[in-house]
Amino acid sequence: MEVTLVGMDETVSPAVARRLEQMRETLGKVVGSVFFGTLLGAMRSSTLKGSYGHGGRGEEVFAGQLHGMLAERMGMANSYGLGEVIFKHYAPQAARIAAASGVEEMA
Questions:
Q1: Which residues, 6 or more positions from 60, have their beta carbon under 8 angstroms from its beta carbon?
Q2: Which of 19, 46, 70, 101 suits 37 as a labelling partner, its CA being 20 to 30 A distant?
Q3: Could you tell me the pTM of the whole model?
Q4: Share of the chain above pLDDT 90, in %
Q5: CA atoms 51, 55, 60, 66: torsion sign
Q6: Collapsing DSSP states into helix, strand and coil, what is residue 22?
Q7: 9 has pLDDT over 70
Q8: How far apart are CA 14 and CA 12, in angstroms?
């Protein structure tokens, strides 16, 4: 059974499609941690804290972990963002390499 990926002219096998989905997920995590993580870190270190809505010491201690998880989810949630642009750029080449290297036998 072969699978046609949206945005690609090529038909790929299910094993290659699984590899491409792993690549998409990894790219989402990387974009989330690099782009959104940096954005949330800058926001966290900002001096613009109001008198309301500030969580005190607990927020200061655990905000980094929360922002890390939020950044990862934000990177994977946006289907038209930077991660998807990078994926669409590299997916055809990655599919050809995976098919040529015999991913079907390795899966």
A1: none
A2: 19
A3: 0.66
A4: 0
A5: negative
A6: helix
A7: no
A8: 7
